[in-house]
Design goal:
32% of the residues lie in helices and 22% in strands. The protein is of the alpha/beta class and 249 residues long. The longest helix has 14 residues. It is elongated. The structure holds NADP nicotinamide-adenine-dinucleotide phosphate. NADP nicotinamide-adenine-dinucleotide phosphate (NAP) binds next to strand 2, helix 2 and helix 3.
Length: 249
């Protein structure tokens, strides 16, 4: 009789990755390894095995899949983590196993929103008018381009401080989502913010800043998502579990 127990590699770094790992481990049918890039030093570890650090590109990930006898890759990385998703699709294909992605739906503007869409970080930085007092929520990896604009004031929120020096015209707010609507209103008010910059990450834990911006009549520069590979995708944890169950049925 074939071995029914499978080994699933979850590419993590999101709340969905943790929920998926916890659910799969609790059900007990399969072994689960969750991998983190290792960009942050503080994280809530999910149930199951943990792998921290990059694999070394597509070839490295393929080697890991084969060495660890992985049967399926669940790509539950952030919508803006384009490289690891491309690597996951290519490495899984090369190793002859399935790769399913979880694509959380992007945010859509509501009546009363004043959003301007831009293609990427560079276009976003260019679109900020001189003299603006901007609340930037892109994370620490891409904050340098905003710090380089010394004709704007930057309030930059991130989980851990960036590697680079914070210039005099910028201020860090170190905090981990979720954020309540009251917290977002208070921050925008306290810091006298007149423009919000956000990636179109989707999800609930950071949506409240957009509600606060709408209520306060604040314009938003919304950075569009990078392209992801054409792997089979689900939009929530329940749906990717269904894909996994069907695959192993
Ligand atoms: P990325 O540009 O797509 O990936 C850069 C490299 O980091 C990858 O080539 C890979 O290194 C390694 N890596 C990324 N995710 C990994 C994972 N889950 N496990 C092991 N290695 C991983 O990704 P990123 O935008 O830097 O994001 C890094 C991580 O932070 C991702 O896991 C993502 O889910 C999470 N995150 C990103 C954002 C964002 O806005 N980008 C926001 C929240 C969370 P090798 O090539 O050496 O394998």
């Amino acid at each position: 009789m074939p071995d029914e127990r499978k080994r699933i590699l979850i590419l993590g770094g999101t709340v969905e990755a943790r929920n998926l790992a916890n659910t799969l481990v609790s059900r007990g049918r399969h072994d689960v390894i969750t991998s983190f890039a290792g960009a942050t030093t503080t994280r809530k570890a999910p149930k199951g095995e943990i792998h921290v650090g990059g694999f070394g590109g597509t070839e490295g990930l393929r080697t890991f899949i084969e060495r660890e006898r992985i049967d399926l890759v669940a790509d539950t990385t952030h919508p803006f983590a384009a490289r690891i998703s491309a690597n996951a699709a290519a490495a899984s294909h090369a190793a002859g196993i399935a790769c399913f992605r979880l694509d959380r739906p992007p945010w859509e503007p509501q009546p009363g929103d004043d959003w301007r869409f831009v293609a990427d970080i560079d276009a976003c930085v260019e679109a900020i008018p001189a003299g603006a007092n901007v609340f930037v929520t892109v994370g620490r990896q891409e904050i340098g381009a905003f710090f380089a604009r010394d004709d704007i004031r930057v309030v930059a929120r991130m989980i851990e401080p960036p590697a680079l020096e914070v210039p005099a015209h910028a201020e860090l707010v170190l905090a981990r989502p979720p954020f309540s609507l009251d917290e977002e209103r208070a921050l925008i008010d306290d810091k006298k913010i007149d423009l919000l910059v956000s990636k179109n990450s989707g999800g609930e834990s950071t949506r409240t800043k957009l509600t606060a911006a709408r209520e306060l009549g604040l314009p938003v520069i919304m950075i569009e998502r990078p392209a992801k590979p054409a792997t089979v995708a689900a939009s929530c944890v329940e749906d990717i579990i269904t894909l996994i169950d069907r695959h192993f049925a």
